[in-house]
Amino acid sequence: MKTSSLFSMGILLLCLMLTSCIKEPPVLVPSIDTQEFASGLKAPIGMDMDHKKWLWVAEAGTGNDDSQLSVFLPNGNKFVAIQNFPSEFRAAEGISVGLNHVLIQGNTIWMLHDKGFLFKADINGFAPGRATIDWSHLQKEDIATFVVDYDFEDDTNMSNPYNMAFGPNGHLYITDAGANAIIKRDPSGHLSVFATLPRTQNPLPVGPPFVEAVPTGIVFDGQKFLVTGLLGFPFPEGRAKIFAIDLNGVVSEYKDGLSSLTDIEKVSADKYVITEFARFALGAGWTSNTGRLLQINQGQETTLLDLIDTPTSVVSAGSGVYFVNSFKQGKVTMVVTKGY
Question: Which of 48, 159, 228, 308 is the most buried (most CB within 10 A)?
Answer without folding.
Answer: 228
